[in-house]
Automatic annotation (TrEMBL):
SMART domains: HTH_ICLR
InterPro entries tied to this protein: GAF-like_dom_sf, HTH_MetabolicPath_Reg, Tscrpt_reg_IclR_C, Tscrpt_reg_IclR_N, WH-like_DNA-bd_sf, WH_DNA-bd_sf
PANTHER family: HELIX-TURN-HELIX TRANSCRIPTIONAL REGULATOR, ICLR FAMILY (PTHR30136), HTH-TYPE TRANSCRIPTIONAL REPRESSOR ALLR (PTHR30136:SF24)
Identification of the protein by name: IclR family transcriptional regulator
Keyword DNA damage attributed: no
Record-linked SUPFAM superfamilies: GAF domain-like, Winged helix' DNA-binding domain
Lineage: superkingdom: Bacteria
All residue ranges annotated as the IclR-ED domain in the record: 84-266
Keywords: DNA-binding, Transcription, Transcription regulation
UniProt signal peptide: none
């Protein structure tokens, strides 16, 4: 068999790049298997799913094991993701800023509809407005970054609440509801029914529940643990936002929120 000869630096780079990609694919397959089976994965399983020979799989795993990215059970000889991956995940999370990731999306949909777009994060039983793109129209929303509002009567708050544990709803209900407008939901049962609709739709609607003259559609943003940590909304004066446009708002923020969530590591 003829020996393969590498003649240029570029060719060496290509071979090295191919080797790295194959190794990373082995690590990816291992992570997928570990997500499905708590006792880890065997070399044969990884080999079959990665389309790599068992010897190549062992070589890649040995390299990852030296770095702490992979661990091997001495009794079963099965492999699992190592603890060093936790450090990498923690560093990655520090560099992921929902405001930075969301900013270009917020501007894009504000330009598309000409209405005000908000980004909020959850803080206890409230939401905090962390970014805003103003409407291009004369009559605008009277909101500001740093403003806090309740979760149960705002579109942005309900979007997060709908995908949060039931215990959070119970805590908010225990605090009591304030009727900001005649449309505010002021019982646990009514709120739960609305949250169920939000889960089915994928976005929430605030039809004058916090401010009687405002309509809003909002969607949740999820982190790498698939937890709802933020939401974004499109809002405008009630007289300007008919039912058809409100639905279009909802579908748009739902799609945009998915893109932002993926940027935060969500795998939905």
């Amino acid at each position: 068999m003829a020996r393969r000869v590498i003649t240029t630096g570029e060719s060496k780079d290509k071979v090295a790049s191919s080797t790295v990609l194959k190794a990373l694919n082995v690590l990816h397959v291992l992570s997928e298997l570990c997500d499905q089976q708590l006792d880890g994965a065997s070399v044969s399983q990884i080999s079959r799913l990665s389309n790599e020979s068992p010897s190549s799989v062992c070589k890649h795993l040995a390299a990852f094991q030296k770095m702490g990215l992979v661990e091997q059970d001495s009794h079963t000889e099965r492999y699992r993701i190592g603890v060093y991956s936790l450090r990498l995940a923690a560093i990655a999370q520090k560099t992921l800023n929902v405001r930075d990731i969301a900013a270009p999306y917020l501007k894009k949909i504000a330009d598309q509809f000409g209405e005000t777009v908000h980004l909020v994060v959850r803080d206890g039983h409230q939401v905090v407005y962390v970014d805003k793109v103003e409407s291009s129209k004369t009559i605008r929303m009277h909101s500001q970054i740093g403003l806090r509002n309740p979760m149960y009567c705002t579109g942005v708050g309900k979007a997060i609440l709908a995908f949060s544990p039931l215990s959070l709803v119970d805590e908010i209900a225990a605090d009591g509801f304030t009727a900001y407008t005649p449309s505010t939901l002021v019982t646990r049962e009514d709120l739960l029914r609305d949250l169920e609709q939000i889960r089915r739709r994928g976005y929430s609607i605030d039809d004058g529940e916090h401010e009687s003259d405002v309509r809003c559609a909002a969607a949740p943003i999820f982190n790498h643990l698939n937890e709802p940590v933020a939401s974004l909304s499109i809002s405008g004066p009630k007289w300007r936002i008919n039912d058809s446009l409100l639905q279009e708002f909802g579908l748009t923020v739902h799609d945009v929120a998915l893109h932002i969530s993926r940027g935060l590591g969500c795998v939905q």
